[in-house]
Please model this.
Amino acid sequence: MLNLFYAAGASSMAAHILLHEAGVPFRAERVDLANKTWAQGDYHLINPKSCVPALTLEDGDRLTECLAILTWIADQAPEKNLLAAAGERRRYHELEWLSFIATDLHKNFITPERHNGVAANFLSRTAEGQAQTRVHVAPRLAYVDRHLAGRQFLMGDAFTAPDAYLFVMLTWARRIGLDLTPWAHLQAFAARVAARDSVQQTVAVEGPPHSLRVAGDTPA
Model:
């Protein structure tokens, strides 16, 4: 059976959701990112990069990096159409979205605070850091909002792998108090995906996202 190494609310949540979408049996192994440990000890031995997700395959091989793991999961259930088949033009547009989310959204949520001990979490906990994140992330979310006009999901009317990743980014936006009200298409997308069984199953294990707003601030 597959082992998914995850931290609650981290980017690994996208893989957690997609495994349920694909109907692939797996075990969810929770990781303490602050201490770099899991139930059986040193997480660095699982992933020397000490980040999530990591996915151990049935033959013992291990994948890391969200884009690669989401692609692999989708390919295990081709009948679910979570990614188009190799050679189909649609697949490369799906990979285009996965790459955009990984490099333009995901990375811009991460501030230097993650690396100097101010925040053990992967998102900023300070008002200054959260404000800095909003400056970088907002124009990118605005771009996605424009794309979603007239669409249910990123690729049209069907849920695909990039949608799972985008949904997690929107939970991060809310956690740092980024008001999604200006982007009606993103708001509708987030509500639509949140209602899916795969997300409900994932939240039942990981717990709901918790606000990282500084005490005394009013959440958006």
Q: What stands out?
A: Residues 2-79 form a domain with the Glutaredoxin fold (CATH 3.40.30.10).
